[in-house]
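REVIEWER CHECKLIST
Item 1: Sequence provided? yes
Item 2: Single chain? yes
Item 3: Sequence as submitted:
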Amino acid sequence: MSVDSAARSSASTNAPDITVSELSGALKRTVEDAFGHVRVRGEISGYRGPHSSGHVYFSLKDANARIDAVIWKGVFGRLRFKPQDGLEVVATGKVSTFPGQSKYQIVIEALEPAGVGALMALLEERRKKLAAEGLFDPARKQLLPYLPEVIGVVTSPTGAVIRDILHRLSDRFPRHVLVWPVRVQGETSAAEVAAAIRGFNALAPGGALPRPDILIVARGGGSIEDLWGFNEEIVVRAAAESDIPLISAVGHETDWTLIDLAADMRAPTPTGAAEMAVPVRADLMANVHDLAGRHRGALRRFVEGLKTELRSAIRALPQASALLSTPRQRLDLAGQNLPLFLRRRLRDTELRVSRLGGRLAARSPQALLAARRAKFEALRDRPAEAAARAIADKQRQLSVFGDRLARAISGRAAIEKRRLQTEQTKLTSIENRLKRALSRAQENRGAKLATLSQLLDSLSYRKVLDRGYAVVRDGGGHPLTRASSVAAGSALSLEFADGKVAATAEGSPPAKPARAPKPAGPTQGDLF
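Item 4: Structure as written out by the authors:
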């Protein structure tokens, strides 16, 4: 086809021209009207977590096709199941277009795993992750108290679970029960259960609200989707961090959740949790009565045994006369030997007294005084000789020190004299320099003062008066520069070069000359 024929064909059509934006908007309205609400099943691909803006972008795919998906920030925060790469899900939302890249996408409003198999795969992956962190380690688990004073229960206040627990506790051993009401199913159940566990742990011991000694997290049976809130990480971490021993009683005996692995004890049912929390009061009372009877019987048998042993010991004891015969014999023998012993003791004492008397005479005051007198006589002349020798030694030392001091003073005086002469020379030089500097400063200041005096004289208004002018002042002595400011009859003062003269104003000041009118230019003619 030639160019002319193509131009004629284009010009002959009546289809209007539209912009790209108009076309994109029409496509967007068409797609959104046709697919306002859809449920799409597919595998998550390309999920890298939330964008810096908080929005989430990924793709849904199956064996033959792929569609882009977006979850806005507000919706993502409310999702019960978070996206994971490779997880098969069912997404509920609406199909829309993105004109900026000429593509269509699904805006997801709800997201859930596609079937039990996907949930079990997600549950197993989460279990391995938390187990690797040590949250299920048996060494972390605490022993349950035998008889708690206060029991905290985290469950729904309207279900049958709390009634079963309270009924079992009242049958076995009534205790003080605190119930923290939570939702046990739904999007907010995980956050509420975790907050309840942490809230019980935050209670201070001895406060207005008693702190529980043991916690029970309970829920009735249900499907895996119903129990999914107890598989969330926030609940598992709260159970593992609890300082209060925790019993998990979620679902029936065959139901297992991740909180069961993190709890200190797992109960098959909520009723079983109540049985684990407290013993049976009747059994305890029976045991106490049995132990009391056994204690009384043992005590009675013990007393009877002591009586039997005492009677046997009494029969084995000898007669009193037999026991006293030997001490009596020893007393008689000692009475016979006592005079001999006393005479021997007296002789020994006399001998010791005579030896002590000889030693005492040698240490008497007279003997000590005579010994000290002889020693003093021997030492009487020695202090005078020692003092003379000490004085002679000191005189020699003083003479040597005096000579050394005289030489030191003489040398020091010479040094100080030389230093004073040097300082005197420096002082004379500084004085001369100061006088010269002062003279130059005075000359400079005098020359500058003369120059300023000449400048002041040349600028003075009196020089103007010498040329025949006069200064006119009003009665207050203020200079007048305009005739219009002088009223008739005003007192004036005229200052000439050789003195002042008083004067009186006469007549009226001349009127100001009228300003000449502007020359008239050409004017605009009348249009009408």
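Item 5: Key structural point noted by reviewer: The chain has a mean pLDDT of 83.
Item 6: Recommendation: ____
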